[in-house]
Amino acid sequence: MSAPFQRARRPDQKDQRREAILTAARELAERSGVARVSLQDIATAVGLAKSNVLRYFGTREEIYLHLLMSAGSEWASVVSARLQEVSGTEATAGVLADAFVDRPFYCDLTTHAETMLEHNVSVEVLKVFKRWAIDTYWAIGRHISAACPELTPADGAALVMTASAFVAKLFPITRPPEALRELYAREPEIARAFPPFRPTLKRMVAATAAGLPLVRQ
């Protein structure tokens, strides 16, 4: 029998409960995918009623935006460090691609950011998220410019945004539903039309990086 609900009253108790909610939401999404997790699933996993979860986060989408910023900050930290060790657009594209491929949860969040997670949240939450995104793009953009002198920091920021857009399109291909898996098994030529994630992402990012100086306004 579960322990009766006790309201968190002290700041440290509230922080612990917020972290428990975020941890449960992440674990559920890593197993089932972000799109399949409901607020009720999160509440059940953490042992709270939905109304009590909403004391800490306004919506399910807000929970996952917080997780996106956390995962994205970790991704950016790794990318920033690795970019200081490379030079040239090909190597830079490899750094960006590898950092995404190594973080499927972040890829899943990125896939749903604009189409799902930015919906059903408050203006203030969106303001925090968008400012975080802009700051992250520009921070990485400056490192990209240092690794690729032909690119400006603005080019670098644009490259990060473009890489994220490629991830949003390419990552779902790595997780086909059961019917598609059956189709690919029956029709290998159809499966071959959808290229593997990492090399395709790297190639598209490298091509974009090479082309940016040619179309700079």
From TrEMBL:
SUPFAM superfamilies listed in its UniProt record: Homeodomain-like
Keyword Ubl conjugation on entry: no
UniProt DNA-binding residue ranges: 38-57
Molecular function via GO: DNA-binding transcription factor activity; transcription cis-regulatory region binding
Domain HTH tetR-type: from-to ranges: 15-75
Alphabetically ordered keywords of this record: DNA-binding
InterPro entries hit by this protein: Homeodomain-like_sf (IPR009057), HTH-type_TetR-like_transc_reg (IPR050109), HTH_TetR (IPR001647), TetR_C_34 (IPR041483)
Domain of life, source organism: Bacteria
Cross-referenced PANTHER family: HTH-TYPE TRANSCRIPTIONAL REGULATOR RUTR, POSSIBLE TRANSCRIPTIONAL REGULATORY PROTEIN
Record protein name field: HTH tetR-type domain-containing protein
Organism (species): Streptomyces canus
